[in-house]
Amino acid sequence: MAIQVGVSIDRSSPVPLYHQLAEQLSTAIASGMLQPGDPFENEIALAERLSLSRPTVRRAIQELVNQGLLLRRRGLGTTVANRKVHRRAELTSLYDDLKRDGGRPATTVLKHELVRDERVATALDLPADAELLSIIRLRLSDERPLAILHNWLPPVYNDITREALEGEGLYAVMRDRGVRPVVAHQTIGARTPTPAERRHLGLKPSEPVLTMTRVAFDAVGNAVEYGDHSYRAQDYSIEVMVDKR
Amino acid sequence: MAIQVGVSIDRSSPVPLYHQLAEQLSTAIASGMLQPGDPFENEIALAERLSLSRPTVRRAIQELVNQGLLLRRRGLGTTVANRKVHRRAELTSLYDDLKRDGGRPATTVLKHELVRDERVATALDLPADAELLSIIRLRLSDERPLAILHNWLPPVYNDITREALEGEGLYAVMRDRGVRPVVAHQTIGARTPTPAERRHLGLKPSEPVLTMTRVAFDAVGNAVEYGDHSYRAQDYSIEVMVDKR
DNA sequence: TACGAGAATATGTCAGTACAAAGTCTTGAC
DNA sequence: GTCAAGACTTTGTACTGACATATTCTCGTA
């Protein structure tokens, strides 16, 4: 028996109907009202019940399928997917992650200067001699050092101050300026720490650092940030989701 | 001036029109015929030229936008995206990766037995006392040890043999049986190697291992594999792409 | 009783159309 | 000459309708 989810559509709202629907279905699933494996009301019935056209309903459902919340099989119907395959497609910063998890993040800016770096400039799709803002930060969580974050930003951001960076995360500062990274390439590795890393992170020589190099782009395809980070491996791991869909 | 891409549509083919179109546009972009930033023929004109309806053309273009190949801006038109933001949404195995990059992968099966493991079974959404196939392999590249791969498989795969696993990668073996992992959760970290890891990977005590724990699911949402891998950090790094779209 | 044909059900593909909204460009008034 | 209103282009949203196809279930026949 298919479960009917309570949905209210506001046709005068500027937000698209299919998105209103997707949102409400999504929260219904997240709230646990629908359990994994439960059959979902079919799109024809749903369209009729809500006085929407089938393509509109279809698009809303498709959005949830893309997020991994629903599973459609032709001839069979739509069902709620296993909770574990849900997609958390976020591009977050360490600062946000720590705050969300209840940690108390803090930042010390170790260095803040203008530099030229051909390797980084190339990765950012800028001329090799472009002047970049290079920032080295020490990130602490609950007063304990967790990571050294070395970032390079394109010339547009040269006016970002040390103070701004001590108050919040880099991504938050960029968000305040209307920049939203949406895609990033990351390379994750590990190595023994450098003397500077040992000093700042309080590591013994045998304790490794987890490293991540990242180039991030906004929706228009402009590179917005290059990062070279090293984390105390004992206290940090990176979670990613790989998705072939 | 918009560039006209040569496209031929076969209406008698069972493959959907929108997909035929998307494929051909995709290869045109990949071939370098269209450069990043180049304007793309608008969807109305394209529909008319190919005698397709606008929704069909639209869907094809949308597919490429989702892959990060194209960029649409309303009122402005569609353009080819920066090559760096292209999405390589794959879920590959180490074996395939090495082979693609020209390395000569080889595998030694160190252990191959049936076990019960509550922690793993739970992660795989199986009853806690389910009997799992536990496989420990040593993966070599060009005769040098690269990684220790410990995997657990659900009962359905209990008949996979040592021999099959020495000939090709785990994912290839599963593919032969019609199983295709499409989503995976991965947790990546680093630590000092255990004595066994040091011995097998030929590491000094100070040289770290890069670790990856993974749970993979197929399109239907069934867990198909749990993995606990450790890599020689000097020789290996993990590349991932994070995507908010 | 076993089994195959076909009905029922649900999603997948495709067409055609209409209007909305965002961004750019042109044109005309001051 | 400057600037704002409006035309134009292009993508975004929404509806209607039709047929294809995959899967399951039921029912009638051998």
From TrEMBL, chains A, B:
Q: Where is the HTH gntR-type domain?
A: 15-83
Q: Which domain of life is it from?
A: Bacteria
| SUPFAM superfamilies, alphabetized | Chorismate lyase-like (SSF64288), Winged helix' DNA-binding domain (SSF46785)
- List the Gene3D superfamilies hit by this protein, alphabetically: Chorismate lyase-like, Winged helix-like DNA-binding domain superfamily/Winged helix DNA-binding domain
Q: Does the keyword Chaperone apply?
A: no
The protein here is known as Transcriptional regulator
Keywords, sorted A to Z: DNA-binding, Transcription, Transcription regulation
PANTHER family for this protein: GNTR-FAMILY TRANSCRIPTIONAL REGULATOR (PTHR44846:SF17), MANNOSYL-D-GLYCERATE TRANSPORT/METABOLISM SYSTEM REPRESSOR MNGR-RELATED (PTHR44846)
Please give one Gene Ontology molecular function term for this protein.
Answer: DNA-binding transcription factor activity
**What species is given as this protein's source?**
Planotetraspora silvatica
User: Could you tell me which Pfam families the record lists for this protein?
Assistant: GntR (PF00392), UTRA (PF07702)
One GO term (biological process) = negative regulation of DNA-templated transcription
Q: InterPro entries attached here?
A: Bact_HTH_transcr_reg, Chorismate_lyase_/UTRA_dom_sf, Tscrpt_reg_HTH_GntR, UTRA, WH-like_DNA-bd_sf, WH_DNA-bd_sf
